[in-house]
Amino acid sequence: MAKYRIRFSKENNLKYLSHLEIIKTIERAIRRGRLTMAYSEGYHPHPKLSFGPALAVGISSMDEYFDLELVDHDEPERLAKELNGALPEGLRVLAVKKIETHHPVKSLNAILNRAAYTVELNVAAGAQAEIMSQLDQLKEASEIKIARNTKEGQKVVNIRPWLHNLSTKKINDNILAVYIVGEIGSGGHLRPEDIIHALPQPVEIVSIVRTGLWHEEQGRVLKPMDFCDGTGGV
Amino acid sequence: MGNVSKPGRYTGGEYNIQTKDWDQADIRVALAFPDIYEIGLSHMGLRILYELINDHPKMLAERVYAPWPDFQALLRSKNALLMSLENKRDLNEFDVVGFSLQYELSYTNVLTMLKLGGIPIYTSERAEHDPLVIGGGPCVFNPEPLADFFDFFLIGEAEEILPEILEQIRKWKLTGQTKAELLRQLEKNSGVYVPAHFQVSYEPDGRIQRIAPLTGAQPERAVVRDYSGAFFPKRWLVPYLDIVHDRVAYEIQRGCTKGCRFCQAGMIYRPVRERPAAAILESLKGLLSTTGYEELSLTSLSSADYSRIEELLTEACGCFTPQGINVSLPSLRIDSFSIDLAKRFQSNRKGSLTFAPEAGTERLRRVINKGVTRENLVTASHAAFKAGWQKLKLYFMIGLPTETQEDLEGIADLAFEVLKIGRQYHPKGNALRITVSVSTFVPKANTPFQWREQISIAETIRKQQFLQERIRGRQLELNWHDPLMSHLEGILTRGDRRLAKVIETAWLKGAQFDGWSDQFQFELWMDAFRQEGIDPSFYIRGRNYDEVLPWSHLNTGLSKDFLRLENERANQEVLTSDCRTDSCTSCGVCSTLHVSKKIEGN
Ligand code: SF4
């Protein structure tokens, strides 16, 4: 048995896939790549495959992760090549690292608590300065209240504590980029579009890209791959 | 795009998609399915044709499915036309637009797709440069209600004949002849039916007087004579969305010889032909490794009847289960052999097993030639519950010929009997559930019951209510088909050419996705019938043997004498045997179509 942590990207039309569809697609690619997955024991064996935090439909990403356990050992480079040969266009394995099994490794969902996004907005040149200053004000505000649909119905939540950073940049006369770093995981979940919807007027979102996922604790920043040797630095 | 439901329906890009160079192709075919992506892609026939055509270096096939209303609105707002998934070409840029016609209640979707694709809906309104609009699938065994919308129909199995037909179309393109000349040429091929080459006249009372051939053509069903070598896809498309049948589905045989008298599929896909087991396994290995699918299903109209099914399943499971692949059979017989198969190959017993007794009493089951006894069902239920299943589905029809109150009672009795058995094995079984599914019998063209009457909406509701009162209680569930939908299906399935106007009118009033209960609007249809001065009940009435049926000029190989005899034997409650295991019952197909049944043997 050998365990791997795999970093991948999700782009183009495949950004419309849901989390479950991504899982299914990658599972099938693993089979096409003739890699023998390890299965759980029991009545309904499942492949030992676990994914990081779900990405909302419509958002592309440059930094996604999953953990995979194979029956056979494989060199990480070769594994990446085999997977890429079997993945559809739009999904790409960027890096593979072997997880040292003699140390317990926390699951991706347990460690990841920060995500960075780039949101591109369609804003005419004349209005860009104003939107930029409104976004700056949001960052300075002590509260950002938005309505969210939850299992118990609509609820007003304050998302300000989850917003860790925000900056803006003019890309061209039509496009304004917003860089957002927010909390994810059990401590709270910031959705990048919530920030945009908190603006006083509607602004058209052209695209959203997740650009990074990591673990942050008391100022220390760790990437998922940093945990693979089992020490994890924590 | 982000605002339509399930954008993945329209993006294409599935694994194993074939996007060929548009300009390099001499013949471009749009394979159109008049329902949503999830249903259309699940259909095996179109998968076969997709790869068959694309395998040809000079031909290209692309797919297009019916867009859901939200996407239709998006297309209109952008002034865009309906496009194919591969090269994103407008429907009206293709040489041929071929519709797969599986279900009568998708007819209005055909019109929607033509309209959105920039193609006039009536053949008479199309120009020379418009695509040839053709139709295939089970509905074309009586395509008459659609006759005015289609240039020609391909009746029967297309895979042997289609490449030849496309080749003729390719040559025709080079000659600059008219479409009319092309159609006269094409109809010499078996399977091709050009509706415009027949003129229908009517009696004052509305019955058909005569169907006159204008060109002397004699349309006949196309049949694959060498089924063991018949084409099957190697590059199976793997979608990202959850589709209805999200698995590798391998057709292990074609045709069914059980001879149920209501079943159109059992009549129109004769004779039974089995694929060699070794070839099946070989293809499956390839398909699984190029798709990565985790599930595979051995399909046909009655897979448990495949002569070497046990051996095939054992080998398939031996090869594929260690790789985490589930092997399943979609259809079960009501006998212990079937349960035994299910038990051995279906590790997951959380789902339900379905039995189809079809009718409530032994008498009525003899009428429909479903030779299943109460004893069979009881034994099978014992075996299923004992093996661990807790959910059983029983499938019945109401409105079958000669049905009495006793037959309806019989449905309820069987349900309670099965429930009682279930409680013996699962006394505390909170998951124990018997689902009784009841559909309304719709007489279909080219079956022994094609002359029979369909029950009215009122009678359907009466029978459903009776069952609803009888079949209730803990662990019991009753489902039924919308009586209004079955009524419309019954009208369209035995309809004639005069219904084209009704379909168009209903569609103009907004009818589409009629098979979807949340979209179906029966009043639109009734308005359309009124507006066109057509009495819908005319089409569900019983008919005499000497009446000219709207499909009587189409030769399916089934002899009229056979169908008639089977209909008479129904009245006499006599069973007819299976020509797979017994001798030929002279349905006529083998001799008329020059084909013979092919059984692998043990
Ligand atoms: S002609 Fe005879 S053998 Fe052939 S399908 Fe009909 S009944 Fe069966």
From TrEMBL, chain A:
Pfam families documented for this protein: DUF2344
Stored InterPro entries: DUF2344 (IPR018768)
Descriptive protein name: Radical SAM-linked protein
Top-level taxon of origin: Bacteria
Domain DUF2344 span(s) in chain numbering: 3-192
Species name: Hydrogenispora ethanolica
UniProtKB/TrEMBL annotation, chain B:
InterPro entries attached to this UniProt entry: CHP03960_rSAM, Elp3/MiaA/NifB-like_rSAM, Radical_SAM_N2, rSAM, rSAM_horseshoe, rSAM_sf
Radical SAM core domain segment(s): 242-477
Coiled-coil ranges per UniProt: none
GO molecular function: catalytic activity; iron-sulfur cluster binding
Signal peptide: none
Record-linked PANTHER family: RADICAL SAM DOMAIN PROTEIN, SLL1084 PROTEIN
NCBIfam families (alphabetical): rSAM_fuse_unch
Protein name, as recorded: Radical SAM family uncharacterized protein
